[in-house]
Structure formats: structure tokens, C-alpha cells
Design a protein that fits this description.
Distance between the termini of chain A: 14 Å
Number of domains of chain A: 2
CATH architecture of the largest domain in chain A: 2-Layer Sandwich
Largest interface: A-B, 35 and 34 residues
Radius of gyration of chain A: 19 Å
Oligomer: homotetramer
Order of helices and strands of chain A: EHEHHEEHEHEHEHHEEEEHEHEEH
Shape of chain A: globular
CATH topology of the largest domain in chain A: Dihydrodipicolinate Reductase, domain 2
Structural class of chain A: alpha/beta
Largest sheet of chain A: 6 strands, parallel
Strand content of chain A: 15-25%
Number of helices of chain A: 11
Number of strands of chain A: 14
Chain lengths: ~350, ~350, ~350, ~350
């Protein structure tokens, strides 16, 4: 089988490097273009990127020359975007117009009516927006997006609760520093400390789930009728967002019923390469999940749940730069391909 | 003025050392007895205690000989108890019976009907239980207690909300490791990690506030009619518990009204030595309070509040081993003394 | 090929779990016995061990029943010992006498004259002591040992310097907390801190290299004529010991010559399963090696070197519980097997 | 007594804030001018500075308006400089020329022949260079400097060793992140990590002590005839540099003799306000000094020493932004004033 050519927009940053890691030895995709800022363009990737992952930089990628973030410079069928919001806003439509499939981790277009905001295990049918988007905008390509990292961890656990008549959600997050990029949080700020604020995070957690859990009807998404209230905190953890969640449901299920719903949640995606064996892993121990011990479960693509109790209250945890970012976009693209849309 | 003789039960641990720090140069109290386990008894305090605070061990205390935890060995008018629960259960009544005033940070007797559970700024009138306790139990002395560290931080902020008809509270804590004592949490457990469970903590946070915010009527406390739901987490912070709180109130005040209630909260204790200038400090910045920056406000006796917003949601933070433990007991004893009860 | 039966003594602790990780899917060894303290014996391993690695507990191991640390209870050809020193002192000879090959990470017998202390890349010929040991002690089995974790990192880098006439070594270590076991260092001790002392560590670093770099002549080891002076420090790092090393050599090589010696160091072990592609990895960047980024190089079996400069000074770093402990013992056993001695 | 007017150049950064803390309630100095970059100038200090210390921002300072870093805008007799090197290079001479006494923590002029590089307890007589500097340069004011933070900790301990004929020094540092300023080291870089390189640090540690320990003879400093070799490392500690030191001396003193020399080291400065009771504090415990426990000894102005042993080896630790920076400059100015030179 010939591989699909894949590019990365914003290839040198924290999420960009996770894209490289995910795509370097991918069975379906071949990494053909690494695009980054003018400062990096023209350099070999190993020089342009200060590789910060604890897995070695793949040799096949190290020697690739970084190109500018421009459709004419990138050779690929699909591009994965780890661009900052403002740049994504400008650049992603240019790529879509030029015929690229854009699988974006950026927030710029997530809430646009005709742009799919997708977690494969939650709302794969929203991909149907692609045709509407292409028609409406006259694009050969298109943009699909995945949610914010902290939204993904929470919303995936909310999906099986929809059957109980989910009404309200309250969530307090304890988020890892990698979510802010390599230089986003200084050591002096976060060491021996908690920062009870993350710019823009709470609005995302309070709006994205409504679209994600909404219904594709006619040619649009009817948002779910739920209310989310979020308090977002940064804690001294490298990777892995931990979330304390309260959920009220019309049918008032018992903790045992909720646990069963999590255990039985088994979306069939068709053996996508990045799909974990279990997307929701339920832990029985009273002191799990923990980010340092559980973030790599399912190669970072599983979400661990524990402490399900009256309230309903529980704790969810997932790897923010894999499940919550690069891995999410790659899984979206795999889903597209499996449906023949790539 | 002659000083009141004070002893410490459990003087060598994390809270015991905070008691030493608080009492070594106290204007009203004179540290006369340091009691600890058999292993420590007979040694000089500087040898018995592995002094772990970043303020120097007071010289006047360093040379004191540690005595066993027994009424006959302790010379004092008031004893401050930092004993573990099971030991406190056994020993504190013996001290009360022997005529000591026992100001306890232990949880053993907090919820007993005739034992005051007091935060001076919240429910000083509950001290009236002392006489009932003495009569009922036939004790010359008595036991008074302060709440659990995470309860103190939360309940003090709830007091001014009672006027709005407080109904429900949800709280997710991010608690410091000093709360578990010097060796309670290993480095391998907590570094680069969050532990979403603290044994016994959630039940305390869910029951103690009802008594604290209850009314002293007739000869007993009628618990407040509120419901608290807690999720307690340990984070890699040395000192300072941070709490994300949701509170619903019958009168549904605006964030601005809630803020005013916090600002106007000004319990008059009468210039007690450990009383902070302001017990509730409201921060305007969007990213405060933070434990590393705000835990020492008011010499560790103020509680900092920030991010008051629709919900009502806000973040509270206080020093867990000062405001939440040793300082709480000392302030209780100061209040007793100011009322002529010591 | 039939696999060699392998047991682990002290299977539940920090090093024991690394042994499990290393042996669970080993091409030559089959994990047949997990031995631990009386408290654990009789339980399934998944219950007995609080699994703390970020790789999942291998399923094949989870259900094994833990046995007591006694030769009659362990079924294996080779046993890997992660026992504490005092217990190792007592138990390891019993296993050797009973015919087991004992590959020990414990320090109890490292400096015994007839016990090989081996790093395969440094002094494989010292394994010849085995026959002398068996003859002298009348054992059917035998004990072989690997050095202390911080010694391994340093001594492996010293081996290629012997050709320059190594004379003196000074080393300041910055050691990870996993080296003290799961509960060895409390969070309150190490967070935001450096502890400039590790019990017993400096004597080991100052004596073990002399034996390691010594010559097997006649029937014994003549220690190398070098002098090592060590200052050992604990720092807030999970895994990976970093060492600042000064080495003086009779021939006074230039940094460039030293670098070449490191680059050319290529001991041929014969493709042992745990052998890294390169045992010494030289980094060119001015700010490497770093434990978080480099500890997993060569699956944790490579030692990274950087900052080679006048002095001669350089920095070495290796994974303390893999290269410095469990992996070291396993590599020793692989070497034995490849030489037909197992 | 009328107070001396003091200004701070670079008042908003990590060292600038320590200057504010040191000067806000100083018995001799009155803080009259806070100068910072154009971005800050014109704002009130509480707005311009993101106050990051755990002591509260002094109210008297909060309302001061920040002025530009220009002699014409600053009203003061003495200015304390926390400027970055390149800016200091340009600006400090302008202030000296304009008649200000400049007490600088910047490295720009430390090694100039006619600029005193002074630790009051080590080489107060070097202040005699001031007259030579003024004469040579035709300045009404002058520049005096203090050494780099890691040099101060080490060099102060070397002073009493000079009497034994100090010859060589090797030092491995474990330096706190505050030394790089508030945003100098990112959380992703330093958490769970050691960085074995600090730009420019080793050359400073290897040259500054020679001047500091040199003799003022005729009209210049004859450098001490010693050789220093440094390996500088960054570790995850907020404040406090720890240093493992080896020192060889012609007279080869015993550890006990070295300890006595430290204990007897008692430079008389004449009760300067910032002078600690003891500049060198010798610890007897085998695991001290530790930054978290000992950095605040002597209000951050003492240097703690421990583990003196054969070699001669020992560990020294001091607060890098107090003793090693702001406090050092302030103590220098106090010394100047006590000698009537301000």
C-alpha cells in the first residue's frame, strides 16, 4: 500500500514534536513535510527543533529540511496543524483552499458551524460536516479539528453518561505544564505552586462539549443541552491532565451503574492504528488514576477513570499532548482514511 | 503579666513544630512542657525533633527536655495537641480530667456533641459548650478542637455566604504534602504527580462545616442545613491548600455581591496575638491566590480568595499547618483567654 | 530454545519491579519465581506489589504467586537479587550453596575477594572468579554482583581513560530519588531541596572502581592504582544519576583525545539482548546530558556523556534503576549465558 | 539621622525585588527611586512589577512611580544595580559620571582593574580602589561590584583557607532556578531534571575568586595564586546554591583544623545592618546544609557549611538572590557608609 503523505504545520513546538513522534513510523502515513516559522525554515529538523521528548528523535526525521508554513512549500495530502491560534486562523483556510485535508489541533475553527469538532470515540458522524463545509466555502480541501486537551479528557467520559440524561457538569482541572508549550510556564511560576488560572481554558471546556455531544441533524449540529462549569488549575506535573468531575443526570444513576456504563463503553472504530485497546480504563484502586503512573496507558491514548462515587463524582486523567493533542488529530485523520475520506 | 503555662502534646512532628514556632515567643503563653512519644522522652528537644522548618529552632526551646505524653509529666495550664487520632482519643480525656485545658488539632473529639469545634472568626459562641462538657463528663479541664486543615480554609469563606442562604457546596482540593506529616508522602509518590485521594479527608470536609456553621441553641449545636461534596487531591506543593469551590445560595447573589461579603467580613476578636489583620484577603488578579506566593499572608493566618465568578465559583487558599492546624489551635486558646476561660 | 528459568529475590521493591520489567518478555529468560518478604508471600504479585512504573505491569506476571525468599521455595536456574544488604548477606550464600546462580544487585558480597564485581563492558574477565569461588566455598552455585548504581555510571566512563594512565578521580553526584526505593526519601525532604549526603554511597564509589578496573591475575584481582574522591548528593529527580567528574591522567590527554576515547570505546559483548547499541553516548550540546531527556537512551542501558573539557572534566548520566541496577544484573547474567556459564 | 537616598536600577526583576525587600525598611537607606525599562516607566511599582516574593510587597513602595534608567530621572545618593550585563555596561558609567555611588550586582565591570569587587567579610580593603577609579576616570561618583552569586558562596568559605596556603579548588554547583530570573528557566526544562550547564557561570567562578582573594598593593590588586575549576549545574530548587567543594592547601590541614578555621572566621564589620551574626555557620549533622532548610539562616546572609572531611572536601550553601546578589550589594553599601565613603 502506498502511504499517505503527511505534513506538520508548527513542527518544532511541544505538540509538533508529539506529531513527529506519532507519525515517524506510522503504518498509513509518511512524514513528507515539516513546516515551521521563518526562523526555522531552511534548517534541518534536528537543528530547528530543540527535541524535548524522552523518546529519541526519529532518525528519518532528523535530516528533513524544515519548510515555511505555506501551501506552496508543503508537499502532502494531509497536514496536521499545531499552529498557535492566530496563525492557524490565517493559514489553515489557505491550506484547505489549496486542497489539503487539514487535521487541526488549533482552536481557531473549532466552533465554526461547518467545521467538524471530533473525538472519534464520541462523535464520528460529525465528519459529515466536511461536505457541507467544502460546498459552502468552495474549498477542495477542508478543515477538521479536535477539542482542547482538557475537553477531550472530560468529554470522552461524558459520552456514556448522555444515556442517563446528562444535565450539568462541574469540573476542576489539575493540568500539566506541557500544555503551555516548552516555554509557556516558567520554573519560578509553577514549582512548589498551583496557578488557579489558565487563559482561555474555561470557556473552551464550557462550550466545546456542547458541540461534541450534540446531534448532527439536517446539515448542522444541534448542541447538547447540558451546562458545564469549569475551574482550571495548573499544577507541577510534566504530562497528564487530572480532572475532578461532578455530573448530574436526569435518571440519577448509582455509582455502580455509572461504572458499568464506562466499562461497557466500546466505540468500534475499526482497529485504527492509534486507537487504544480501551479508550476508557476504569481503575478500582481508591488512589488512581495518577498522571505519572497512568498517562502512558494505551500508548497515551487511553483515559483513566477512578473514584466513581455518589454525586456522581469521579476523577478522569489523560495524556494532554498525546490523547489531548497530537494523538487526537492523528486519530481523526485515521478515521477519515478508514471512511475513505482522505 | 504572668504568662500562661503551655504544653505541646506530640511536639516533634510537622504540626508539633509549628506549635513550637507559634508559642516560642508568644506574648501570653510560655512554653513549659514538650511531650512526645517514649522514643523521644528524656532527650533534649533539639535531639528529639528533626527540626524541619525554615525558621530556626528557637534557642529557648532547643534545650527543653521532652517528657512523656502523660498528665503527671506535663506542667502546664493549657496543652496543645498535635497527637495522631488514635492516641488523642485515649490521651486527651485524661488531660481534661486532670484539669488541663486541651486545645486539640486532632480529629478524635471534633464531632462529639459536647466538644466545641471552633474557628474563632466563624463560631466563637460554640465555646459555651465547655461548661456543658465539664458538667456532663465531670471534668475539671476540657477539650476544645479546631477543624481539619482543608475544612478551615473552606468553612471560613462559607461563613459570610450563610447570609445569602447557603445550600450546597462542591469543593475540589489541591493539598500540600506537609498535611501528611514529614514522612507521610514519599518523594516517589508525589513528584511529577497528583494523588486523587487523601484518606479520611472528604468525610471531614463534608461533616465538619455543618457543625461549624451550626447554631448554638439551648445546650447544643443545631447543624447547618447545607450539603458539602468534596474531592480531595494531593499535589506537589510544600505548604498551602488550594481549593476550587462552587457554592449555591437561595438568594443567588452576583459575584460582585459575594465579593463584597468577603470584603466586609470582619469578625471582631479583640486583637488576639495570632489574629491576622484580615482573615479573608480578596485578590483581584485573575491568577491568584497561589500557595507559594500567598501562604504566608497574615503570618500564615489569612485565607486568600480569588477568581470569584458566576456559579458562584471561587478559589480559596490558606496555610495548612499554620492557619489550618497549629495556628488554629493557638488562636482558639487566645480566644478562650480573652474571654477569661483559661 | 528452552528458556532459562529465572527468579527474583525481593521482587516487590523499586529495583525488583525493574527486574520484572526487564525479564517479563526476555528472549532467553523465563520468569518462574517471584520471592519477597513473608508479608507478601502467598499473595498474587499484583496484590503484593504496589506497581509504580509507568509501563504497565506485565499480565503474565500479575497472577504469579509470590513465594518466600528461601531456596526450597524458589524454582529457577538463576536468581536476581534486589534484596536489602543485611538480608542479602544471609540469603544469597544459601541460594549459591543450593546450586543457584545468583546475580546480585546487593552490596553484601561485592568486595569479597572471590566474588566477581562486574560491568560486562568493563571487566568481563573477572567472571573467572566464579570457579575459584565455587572451589573455595564448596558451592554448586555461585554469586556474581554488579556495582552500586552511581559507581556503574562513573566506572564505565573511566574504563577508556585507563589507557591514558588514570590517576585520580573526583566526582560530585546528583542522584535520583528512585535510588532510595519507593519510600526511602519523603516528599518533604527532597522537594525544593538538595540533600548533600547519601548513607554508604561515597565509600562504595571510592572502593568499587578499584576492583572493577583492576586486573585478574593468577587467581585474584589486583586493584587498579587510582584514587577516587566522591561527594554524593540527592536531588529532586525521579530517575537518572548525573555526575560531574574530574579525572587526572599521567598522559594528560586533551579533551579532544578523551572524547575520541569515549567514541571509540566499543566493547564487543556479542549482541546480548540488554546490550545497548552504544554503551557510551557522547553528546555535543553544551547542556547535555540531562536525566529527564537522556535516561531512556538505549532503553536505559546507555550512559550519556557531555561537556568534556580541560581538567579533564565531564558530565556523565545514566539510568540508576535500569543501567545502574536491574539492567546491570540482567546484562551480567546474559554475559554468563553467552559464555556457557549458566 | 537623615537617611541616605537610595535608588534601584532594574527594580522589577528577581534581584530587583530582593533589593526592594532589603531596602524598604532599612535603617540607613530610604528608597527614593525605582528605575526600570521603558515598558515599566511611568507605572506604579505594584503594576510594573509582578511581585513574586513570598514576603508581601511593602506598601510604601507599591505606590512609587517607576522611572526610566537615566541619571537625570533618578533621585538618589546611591543606586543599586540589578541590570542585565549589556545594559549595565552602558548605563552604570553614566551614573558614576553623574556623581552617583553605584553598587552593582551586574558582572559588566567586576573584573576591571580599578573597580572594587568586594565581599565585605573577605576583602573590604579593596574599596580603596574607589579613589583610584575616580581619579583615573574623572568621575564624581564610582562603581563598586559584588561577585556572581555562586562565587560569593564559595569565595567566602575560601577566605579562611588562604592561611593554609590554598592552591587549587574544584567545585560542582547545584544552583537554584531563581538565579536565572523569573522567566529564565522554563518548568519543562528543569522539572524532574538537572541541567549541567549555566552560560557564563564557570568562567566567573574561575576568575572572580582570584581577584577577591588577591592583595591590594600599591594601587592595584595582585590576584591570588590559586586555580579554580568549576562545573555548574542547575537543579530544581527555588532559592539557595549548594556547592560541593574540594580544596588543596600547601599545609595540608586536617578536616578538624579546617573546621576550626571556619568556626573562628569572624570578620569585624562593625555591626552593619545586613551583617549576619555569623557569616559562616558550620553544621555538624551529616546531611546538612540543605537549601530549603538553611537558606534563610541569618536572614539569608549566612553561608552554611557542612560535611568537612578528608580531601579537603566540604559542602557550602547560601541564598543566591540575598547573600549572592541583592544582600551582597546592600552590605557593600553599608560598609561604604560605615567608612564614611558614601
Amino acid at each position: 500500500m502506498e502511504k499517505i503523505k503527511a505534513g506538520i504545520l508548527g513542527a518544532t513546538g511541544a505538540v509538533g514534536q508529539r506529531f513527529v513522534e506519532a507519525l515517524a513510523n506510522h503504518p498509513w502515513f509518511e512524514l513528507t513535510s515539516l513546516a515551521a516559522s521563518e526562523r526555522s525554515a531552511g534548517k534541518k529538523y534536528k537543528k530547528a527543533a530543540d527535541w524535548r521528548l524522552d523518546t529519541p528523535l526519529p532518525e528519518s526525521v532528523a535530516e528533513l529540511e524544515v519548510v515555511p508554513v505555506a501551501p506552496s512549500k508543503v508537499e502532502a495530502d494531509v497536514v496536521f496543524s499545531a499552529l498557535p491560534t492566530d496563525l492557524a486562523k490565517e493559514v489553515e483556510p489557505a491550506f484547505a483552499k489549496a486542497g489539503f485535508a487539514v487535521a487541526s489541533n488549533a482552536s481557531a475553527y473549532r466552533m465554526e458551524k461547518d467545521v467538524p469538532l471530533v473525538i472519534p470515540e464520541v462523535n464520528p458522524e460529525h465528519l459529515n460536516l466536511i461536505e457541507i463545509q467544502q460546498e459552502r466555502r468552495g474549498w477542495d480541501g477542508y478543515i477538521i479539528t479536535n477539542p482542547n486537551c482538557s475537553t477531550i479528557v472530560m468529554a470522552t467520559t461524558l459520552k456514556p453518561l448522555m444515556n442517563f440524561g446528562l444535565e450539568t457538569v462541574q469540573v476542576a482541572t489539575m493540568q500539566a505544564i506541557s500544555g503551555a508549550g516548552f516555554r509557556g510556564v516558567s520554573g519560578m511560576e509553577i514549582y512548589d505552586n498551583v496557578i488557579p488560572f489558565i487563559g482561555g481554558e474555561e470557556p473552551k471546556m464550557e462550550t466545546e462539549p456542547l458541540k461534541l455531544l450534540g446531534k448532527f441533524e439536517g446539515a448542522e449540529i444541534t448542541p447538547a443541552n447540558i451546562k458545564v462549569s469549569a475551574s482550571c488549575n495548573r499544577v507541577p506535573v510534566i504530562d497528564g491532565h487530572t480532572e475532578a468531575i461532578w455530573a448530574t443526570m436526569r435518571e440519577a444513576p448509582t455509582p455502580e451503574e455509572v461504572k458499568k456504563a464506562f466499562l461497557n463503553f466500546d466505540p468500534k472504530l475499526g482497529n485504527l492504528p492509534s486507537e487504544p485497546e480501551k479508550v476508557l480504563v476504569v481503575r478500582e484502586e481508591e488512589n488512581r488514576p495518577q498522571p505519572r503512573l497512568d498517562r502512558n496507558v494505551g500508548k497515551g491514548m487511553s483515559i483513566s477513570i477512578g473514584r466513581i462515587r455518589e454525586g456522581i463524582r469521579y476523577t478522569a486523567m489523560g495524556h494532554n499532548t498525546i490523547r489531548g493533542a497530537a494523538g487526537a488529530s492523528v486519530l481523526n485523520a485515521e478515521l477519515l482514511h478508514s471512511k475513505g475520506k482522505l
